[in-house]
Each structure stands twice: as structure tokens, then as C-alpha cells.
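Study this one:
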Amino acid sequence: MNVSSTSGEPGQKRSFVSKLRYIGPAFIVGALTFGPGNAVSSATLGAESGYKVLWLLVISSVLMLAFTDMSARIAITYPTSIIQAIKDHIAKPAGVIAGICFFILAVTFGSGSMIGASLGLQVITGVDIKPLSAICAVAAVALLWTGGAYKRIEQVMIIAMAVMAVAFLATAVKVGPDLGDMAAGLVPSDVPGGLVAAFALLGTNLSLYSAFYMAYTLRDKGTTRADYRTTTRYDTIPGALLPGILTVAIIASAATVIPGATIESGNDMVDILRPALGSAAVFVFALGLFSAGFSSVMTGVPGGHVLSDALGFGDSIDHRRVRIMATVAIAASLGLVLIFGGAPIQLILVANAGTLILFPLLAGSILYLATRRRVMGDLTNRWWQTVIGVVGLAVVGWGAYRVAVELISG
């Protein structure tokens, strides 16, 4: 959807309806970010460690906003896709490698999301995870090939965000967490135990995968340079920060309702919602987790989209080769579930923590492109934005190292 460049002129009044036209790309990023990995990792950490991870959440949310904004400015200023920009301004092999890494991330994220969607269905049906995951995969592929992919994905993801927001925010308000303990959790400290869950939270809340794809969603929507400020105000900022707000709600609810509990199944997470929703908790949780999971299963679409672009097969989301590669990504995600799905909660955590290993390449590419003044012009990173970007690169580099050591040793 193209937005007229005159819509960004200063002083021009905009109606509420016209503002809604800017909402979409960052909320897709938000829906990709707030998937089952985020819900499970935040519930696990909230139950096990209380509020001691809030500092990590705040830092990752700020960094996520910074990289999402850089990606948005890259999409607006570079005449090509972000993968092509990497090829042109860094190195052609770097663009190909970035596309392959992105595809691997799509498969990994997709497996955790498929498990999450299936856990939501399992709470109601009692059916085993693996056949439910196969059903989700078939449904995702069917949606992919029915046409109008962007519109369908956008609508599903926004609905998923709304469902999860209402359920967990209502619970957080109802249980009334200890504000003093929450404030103490903002002070950086070691996370006692649950390192995989902590890395999973970092990998989902600071999702360079989602921030990187923001450049494609904005480009597909036709956002122009004149739209930047309005898009930032009504889409980028709320879309990037909303997952962090919802995560705080889950951590607060879990820390208050099920302190010390171990999350081993979807039914364990249902208990978090019971104080606010009573007997309706099962249905609301099942619908919410399924929606968040299934919307994130569609990460196969970004995976196929970016890999096709990296290999020179086309960068339009409606291109046949993009859909073929997206189908391959969804099928590969299902394969991981069928092989390792015996411990679903652990698979979600490990899958999302493991994504950190490939994040430094995406972070470095975004940061470098956002500092090229010759192309970016007045939308080039300011010094403080570059500083935040360097800090973010250091954080994901540290996370990649720690999670690699943790997974190898554990």
C-alpha cells in the first residue's frame, strides 16, 4: 500500500483513520517478536527468578527499538532491498551469507512457534504435539499459496498481538504485583539458574531477525522518506516496544501467581491467567498461544523472501520462488519438531536461545548501512544512535558466545 508523500508534510492535520494507514510493518515485527518463545521464556523466568530479569528486558527493548528504527530508515533511503544493499555496500558474499543465516533463523524460530501453536491446541484437544504441528504447517502453507500474503499475514499478526495483550495485561492488573520488587529488578544482576530461558528471552525480545525483516515490510508497503516521522510515531515505536510491555506483564503475573513453579507444559501456563479469567483461562490461553504461535509460524515467509533475494531469485513476497522457499522453511521447521518435539517447552527455549548465535551478522549489517551518510543523508545515524547500535552489537555478540558455550556444555 503506497502512502502519499504529502502525508508527511509538517503542519498537516491527520484524521484518526489516516493515522491507521501507517500501522502495520512494526506490528508485524512485534508479532514475530512476541511469539511462544517470548511467552514461555518470560513465564519460566518469572516463576523461577521473579523480577530479577527486568533489567535485561529493559535493555533489550531499548536496543530492539534502536535496530528497528535503523532498519526502517534503511528501507526508506536505500533504493534496493537490505540484502542487495549489503551486497552493494559491504560485499556480495556477505549478502548471500546474511540471506542464508536469515533462512536458518526462520526455520529455527518456526519450529519453536509451531510447538507453541500446537501447545495452545493441545490444552483444549489433548492431542499429541507432533500431529498438531503437522496440521499447523499445512495450514500455514495453504495460507501462503492462497494469494494476498502480505494482507493476510498482517491481519493475523495484529489479531494475535491483541489477544495476548488483553489476556496477560488483564492478569497483571488483577494480581497486583509488588512494585517495589519490580523496581529492584531493574538493577542489573545475575539471573539465578534458567540461563537457557534468559537467553531465549534475549533472543526473542531483542530479535534482530524481526528488525532485519522490518526493511522488507516497509518497502513492500511503499513507505517514503516523507512518511518517516509519522511511521516512527504510530508504528515503529509502539510496534517495537509492545512486546516488551507484554513480557513485563507475563513476568509479573508468573512471579505473583506461580512463584517457584516449573513450566513444563501449556497447562502450567494456564494457571497464570486463572486469577483474572477463572474458568475462561483455558480457552483464552489456548487461543492466545495458538495465535501467537501460528502467526510466528509464518516466519517461513520472511525466510523464503530474504533467501530468494540473497540468491537473486526475486525479492517480491508474491514471487513463486519466494513461496517455494517459504514452503521449504515451514517444512524444515516441522522436521525439527518431529525430531526433537518430545520435550516441547525445552525445544521452544533452546530454539529461541540458539538464534542469538547468528544475530551478530544481522546487527553488524544494519549498523553499518545506517551509518553510510552518502546514501542515508539526513536519516543517517546520529552519534548517539551509533553508540546504542555498538552496544547492541556487543550485547548480541556476548549473547552468541554465552549461548554457544551453554548449549555445547549442556
